Amino acid sequence: MPHPNMMGMGGNPHYAEGGEADKYNIRFSDRTIRAAFVRKVFFLVAIMLGVVALMTAIPFFNHDTKLFVARNMGMYWAAYGVFFAVYLALMCCESVRRSFPANIIMTAIFTLAVGYMTMMITVHHNVVSVLLTLIICTICCGSIIIFSSQTKYDLTNMMGIMFILSMCLLVFGMVAMISAIFFHVRFIYMVYAALASLLFMFYLAIDVQVSFTSKAYVSVCCWFFK
Prior knowledge:
- The protein has ten helices and no strands.
- It is mainly alpha-helical.
- Its main location: membrane.
């Protein structure tokens, strides 16, 4: 027979457990706690971005490192494999992203993999192009974060539209690749890059609003990075 304290309204033995969950949800919905959670998310994202930026800058200060990174494409694909595996583990395995310190270790590996891939891409460009890209990306992302955190519109309901736009961009990317290879139409790459940047700005705005309702800060940080 269930303990009397476990018997809630209507004699439901699970009332106490549900009550604890309700109390947790009420506490987590408190504005002060939500604000602290969001600060933790953005603080962790800032650290991850700082590590990636530092790794990206290393080849421009050390010529030997730049040559090593540029000549070893195998390490790029290895880093991509690590990135994809860790991302799936953090997104699909709740026991991984909610257990400490496993979630921090996996996030660190995830950040290093992204940093190496970014470093591999930037070594094929000059420092001016990389700095211009950094400035443009910083301004755009900062503006999107401010807008999505202050607007009254719920952007999280637009995931269906975003999926359709993503499929259209995927098809356009295939057409752009075929046009560049067989017909030498190079300018279409710029159009594709502009459309992709615009689409992922929308994704960033949605991710920011998702962070206001999510309860797992590690997964939210990975959403920002994906």
